[in-house]
């Protein structure tokens, strides 16, 4: 390939660069040729891209770039520049970066990288009979297993024992190479006290910085003449394609291509999705049981029969505007409630509590296995470096008691001020969330009163459904709007705290954002589950403490169906919106980016320019993915007693989510640098906390929100004393005892006749008795049964959880043996080295 050099002033639209422009070559470069410098030997480890403009601002950017690139060359990196004339739109300049062997070995030792010592000779000893059986879920044969090695921390003085001259080009993987280059890029200064590629991109000195993909993701070879595929094509064909949704994920290949941090996310997501299968099956069985037995449920049948409980006259559900109504009007509501509130629900809640325990314990074992195989067991203690931002912000130095070297630090006094500020702002933000929830509650109260006052029977009978459904939709919109605000607040507060390492920064940011999201998503659900209808008082003595308004009541069949409806809309609506956003937004951005690149020359579109046109992976991309799944996990566990179908919807969503994420990473996003991570971070602690909360909430939902306990008490102790369940669970009120502000304007005597009493949901003495409207003995029996159920449920679940934790060791035996052998081989290699010297 012929080339020319051009030199001109960058501020006048042409930069001082080394250009390589095709002059009508008689051959076409292959895609893999663009992965190297023009000499065809030095591999491109990173790309910097920028657009050339004119003006004083651009001259400042030119100066910053020259200083920055000069610092990179001082660190030993090799740079090769491509003029804008080589790009298809004649505007973009590229800087190609290559890390020579000396730089790689130097930083591998600084970063304490673990490198191959000898191939793992114990892997075959622990294969099970099941693993030798072929299933449709296995990966295709072209996805060959990744070689597994025993490793040891890199040491340049022992390199000649492990690496020959010929092996140097392949000794460091592409992921390790771009990680080393990114470490240099993140610390290189471009002016006094200003440094790092992140800042250079934020001030628009560079448009992008990224490692190259291995080539096109579509295999151009025909099925009749298959050729060797690069790693990107292998991942696309066997992982990212929608037709591979049922296949196992090639986790080792994902890790090798994208790094451990992304690899462990997909490992966790795949494991979580697999564990949802038994939960989804059990939830579906419970729902089917409810559908099959709903007509056989005697209380529901009595409520829907106008000759039985359905003929009972109920007290108005709001003041003035609401009239009396027949219990039969809530027949549809009651039947829908039974689908989710039946005896199978209790069994399912217990099952899900144990499921969560198994989920945590087996993931802990899987995580230990991945930590060992991917050499991240000691990453946070030994390999993780100090954040460049912390080094710049910390104004004090101290001697590290372990390394005895000077290091930057922030005094406790300054930290206290920072944390007090963030705590105050966080508390205020949570109050804003609760205020938004209160607004939704007020809307539901107002719309319910308006609908009950109408003459239209359909609107009147379905007012609860309509009010709850529209309120849930409004709540979903408010949640999505507030999420964007909380992101900016969370970033600002976390940066203010001056965290030392990237893991500490991510953990602090994650905790704050999850706290926001927890209150944002779950506050309205907690209200319906534990507060709605619990403190309303009684007819004639309603509770008006909420700004003078009468509080909301539950339907005689309970609030569980409202809770179920709220959960379904928020959970499913969030998942649908998230998938639409993840599928179409990157496609639209990519379409506009590609469309903007007009073909103004006959040059071949290079690999680096093709990648430049891809979308950038958001800096917090994995955070959003984890957050989405953890919020979903809360729906699946915390409120599963109210919505047994939650695991099924979660399973369907996650099967789609894995392929959407895989497709984005392989085809639509620039290749991210291969970040390392030891585990899923603070998310594991958050999941553990959610599981603990779920045990309590499910017990309380079954005991106080559902009708399971009252029906149980009625069935075993009071069924012979009363004819029907609703005679047992509803109390009687004399309408002459109404407070004047509660008397309905329209008594509708033409329908109900001369109304003297009405019924309401409670266990109180009837009017005219010595203790009228006081709690009956039944109330205390039901309350005792509810509290006893909570105690038994929680203690039984906690005991079984402890038993599972005791019986299942945290570390698999196979991993423990391999770790011992690795230590033995490392000592043996060290002794050989000492003997030679």
From TrEMBL:
Transmembrane segments: 265-290, 344-363, 417-446, 466-487, 508-530, 630-652, 680-704, 783-808
Membership in a protein family: Belongs to the anoctamin family.
GO molecular function: chloride channel activity; protein dimerization activity
The name this protein goes by in its record: Anoctamin
Primary location class: membrane
Entries under Pfam families matching the protein: Anoct_dimer, Anoctamin
Claim: Cytoplasm is one of the keywords in the record: no
Keyword terms: Cell membrane, Glycoprotein, Membrane, Transmembrane, Transmembrane helix
Residue span, Anoctamin dimerisation domain: 36-251
Location of the Anoctamin transmembrane domain: 254-822
Subcellular location: Cell membrane; Membrane
GO cellular component, one term: plasma membrane
The keyword Transmembrane helix belongs to this UniProt entry's keyword annotation: yes
Membrane topology: Multi-pass membrane protein
């Amino acid at each position: 390939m012929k080339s020319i050099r051009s030199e001109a002033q960058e501020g006048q639209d042409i930069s001082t660069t080394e250009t390589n422009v095709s002059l009508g070559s008689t051959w076409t470069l292959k895609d893999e040729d663009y992965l190297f410098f023009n000499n065809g030997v030095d591999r491109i480890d990173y790309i910097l891209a920028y657009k050339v403009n004119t003006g004083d601002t651009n001259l400042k950017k030119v100066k910053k770039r020259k200083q920055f690139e000069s610092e990179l060359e001082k660190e030993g990196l090799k740079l090769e520049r491509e003029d804008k004339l080589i790009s298809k739109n004649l505007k973009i300049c590229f800087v190609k970066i290559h890390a020579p062997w000396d730089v790689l070995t130097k930083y591998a030792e600084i970063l304490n990288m673990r490198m191959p010592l000898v191939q793992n000779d114990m892997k075959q000893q622990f294969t099970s009979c099941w693993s030798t059986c072929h299933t449709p879920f296995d990966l295709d044969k072209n996805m060959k297993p990744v070689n597994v090695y025993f490793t040891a921390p890199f040491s340049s003085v022992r390199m000649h024992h492990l690496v020959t001259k010929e092996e140097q080009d392949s000794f460091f993987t592409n992921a390790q190479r771009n990680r080393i280059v990114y470490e240099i890029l993140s610390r290189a200064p471009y002016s006094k006290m200003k440094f790092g590629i992140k800042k250079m991109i934020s001030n628009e000195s560079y448009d992008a910085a990224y490692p190259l993909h291995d080539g096109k993701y579509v295999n151009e070879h025909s099925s009749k003449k298959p050729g060797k595929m690069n790693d990107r094509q292998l991942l696309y064909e066997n992982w990212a394609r929608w037709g591979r949704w049922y296949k196992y994920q090639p986790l080792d290949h994902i890790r090798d291509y994208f790094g451990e941090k992304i690899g462990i996310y997909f490992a966790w997501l795949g494991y979580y999705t697999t564990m949802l299968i038994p939960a989804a099956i059990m939830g579906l069985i419970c729902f089917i049981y409810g559908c099959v037995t709903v007509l056989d449920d005697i209380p529901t049948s009595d409520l829907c029969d106008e000759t039985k409980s359905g003929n009972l006259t109920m007290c108005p559900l709001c003041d003035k505007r609401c009239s009396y109504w027949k219990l039969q009007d809530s027949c549809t509501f009651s039947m829908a409630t039974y689908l989710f509130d039946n005896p199978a629900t209790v069994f399912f809640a217990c099952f899900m509590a144990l499921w969560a325990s198994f989920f945590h314990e087996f993931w802990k074992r899987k995580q230990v296995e991945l930590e060992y195989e991917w050499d991240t067991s000691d990453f946070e203690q030994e390999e993780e470096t100090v954040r460049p931002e912390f080094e710049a912000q910390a104004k004090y130095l101290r001697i590290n008691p372990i390394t005895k070297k000077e290091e930057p630090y922030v005094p406790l006094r300054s930290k206290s001020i920072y944390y007090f500020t963030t705590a105050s702002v966080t508390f205020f933000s949570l109050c804003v969330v609760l205020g938004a929830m209160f607004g939704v509650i007020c809307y539901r109260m107002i719309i319910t009163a308006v609908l009950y006052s109408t003459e239209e029977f359909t609107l009147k009978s379905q007012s609860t459904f309509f009010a709850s459904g529209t309120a849930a939709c409004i709540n979903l919109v408010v949640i999505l709007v507030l999420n964007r605000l909380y992101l900016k607040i969370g970033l600002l507060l976390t940066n203010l705290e001056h965290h030392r390492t990237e893991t500490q920064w991510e953990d602090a940011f994650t905790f704050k954002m999850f706290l926001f999201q927890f209150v944002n998503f779950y506050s309205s659900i907690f209200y319906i589950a534990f507060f709605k209808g619990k403190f309303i008082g009684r007819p004639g003595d309603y509770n008006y403490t909420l700004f003078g308004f009468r509080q909301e009541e539950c339907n005689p069949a309970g609030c569980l169906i409202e809770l179920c409806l709220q959960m379904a809309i928020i959970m499913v609506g969030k998942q649908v919106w998230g998938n639409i956003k993840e599928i179409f937004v990157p496609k639209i951005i990519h379409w506009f980016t590609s469309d903007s690149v007009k073909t103004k020359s006959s040059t071949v579109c290079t690999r680096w320019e093709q990648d430049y046109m891809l979308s950038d992976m958001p800096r917090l991309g994995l955070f959003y993915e984890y957050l989405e799944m953890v919020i979903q996990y809360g729906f699946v566990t915390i409120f599963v007693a109210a919505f047994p179908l939650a695991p099924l919807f979660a399973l369907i969503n996650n099967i789609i989510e894995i392929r959407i994420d895989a497709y984005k990473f392989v085809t639509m996003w620039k290749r991210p640098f291969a970040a390392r991570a030891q585990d899923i971070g603070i998310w594991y602690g958050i999941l553990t906390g959610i599981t603990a909360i779920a045990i309590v909430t499910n017990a309380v939902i079954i005991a106080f929100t559902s009708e399971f306990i009252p029906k149980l008490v009625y069935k075993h102790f009071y069924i012979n004393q009363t004819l029907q369940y609703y005679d047992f669970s509803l109390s009687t009120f004399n309408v002459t005892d109404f407070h004047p502000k509660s008397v309905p304007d329209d008594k509708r005597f033409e329908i109900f006749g001369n109304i003297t009493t009405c019924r309401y949901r409670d266990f109180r003495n009837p009017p005219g008795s010595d203790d009228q409207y006081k709690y009956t003995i039944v109330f205390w029996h039901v309350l005792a049964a509810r509290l006893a159920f909570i105690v038994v449920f929680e203690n039984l679940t906690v005991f079984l959880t402890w038993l599972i934790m005791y019986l299942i060791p945290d570390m698999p035996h196979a991993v423990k043996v391999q770790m011992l052998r690795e230590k033995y081989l490392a000592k043996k290699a060290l002794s050989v080295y000492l003997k030679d010297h």
